[in-house]
Design goal:
This protein has 259 residues and is of the alpha+beta class. The protein folds into 2 domains: 6-131, Alpha-Beta Plaits (2-Layer Sandwich); 140-258, Alpha-Beta Plaits, CATH 3.30.70. Helix content is 26%, strand content 24%. It has 8 helices and 12 strands. The protein has helices at 23-28, 39-44, 95-106, 145-152, 160-171, 180-183, 185-188, 201-215, and strands at residues 6-10, 16-20, 51-56, 76-78, 81-83, 115-118, 121-126, 140-142, 219-221, 229-235, 240-248, 251-258. It has a 3-stranded antiparallel sheet with strand order 3-7-6. The N and C termini lie far apart (47 Å).
Length: 259
């Protein structure tokens, strides 16, 4: 019988989520390869829609019952004894794939029309504001200000762990930053094994350059159907930068960066 430990996790709203440490169970279970949607394509699909409504499933994972034969696999210890889940708990390696499969089955006749779902998050979109109470700025896609501020407030990394933290934050913004790989190239040598961490002038210049770029608040557009696309490719010695743009009303608009 499996017997996992309890791991309390503080959520963004300050509440505590009680989870079980299912790492050993996850390592022993086969992986469900049911694919999740590509978030960037979901964002682009909101093009020309004047209003969107966002819906978050309430205790979403707990809405799916466990197969009775699998319930004992989720057993966890407490001071009052050993318990197991009758509904799908947070922390199982296949919960995302299981939930996505269920959502696509439930909303099958609405998907790719006016509904998009990513695990327990849904967006309902309408081309006219009168169809929704939630207004959305048309077309432009911007970085969440909190993500920009988190990088702008960061001091220069003092060790490899702080550098990995920086790169993790930048990874969320890759589609907004031109040639991100090239901009981060000075950091690559510091990530190598057995190389002393020495933050030099080249690293400092690259770090400040990234901050300066983000301070300009890069804005992208969502692609508009039937408008011509333009692909730019810039090859450098150690990186390749790609920009997908679109021409609309005789103006060129940036839509996507890749490197």
């Amino acid at each position: 019988m499996w017997n996992s430990s309890i791991v309390p996790i503080r959520k963004k709203n300050g509440q505590i989520r009680v989870c079980a440490d299912f790492r050993d169970l996850n390592n022993a279970r086969p992986k469900d390869d049911f694919s999740l949607p590509i978030a960037e394509l979901m964002i682009d699909a909101t093009t020309v829609h004047e209003a969107l409504s966002f819906i978050d499933g309430s205790s979403g994972y707990n809405q799916i019952r466990m197969a009775p034969v699998d319930e004992e696999l989720t057993a966890f210890r407490t001071p009052k004894g050993i318990y197991c889940y009758k509904v799908m708990p947070f922390g199982l390696n296949n919960f995302g794939a299981t939930y996505q499969r269920a959502m696509q089955k439930i909303f099958d006749d609405m998907l790719h029309k006016n509904v998009k779902c990513y695990v327990d998050d849904l967006v309902v979109k309408s081309k006219k504001r009168r169809d929704h109470l939630y207004d959305l700025r048309k077309q432009d896609i911007e970085i969440e200000q909190a993500k920009i501020d988190a990088i702008l407030r960061m001091p220069e990394p003092q060790n490899i762990y702080e550098l990995k933290s920086l790169q993790g934050k930048l990874a969320y913004l890759w589609r907004f930053i031109s040639n991100l790989v090239g901009r981060c190239q000075p950091f690559s040598r510091l990530m190598k094994k057995d190389v002393p961490f020495e933050w030099d002038e080249t690293c400092d210049k690259a770090f400040k350059g990234i901050k300066s770029y983000l301070m300009k608040h890069p804005v992208l557009i969502a692609l508009v159907p039937r408008c011509p696309l333009i692909l730019y490719v810039a090859a450098q010695e150690r990186s390749v930068g790609i920009l997908l743009a679109q021409k609309n009303n005789e103006e060129k608009h940036n839509a996507f960066y890749l490197s």
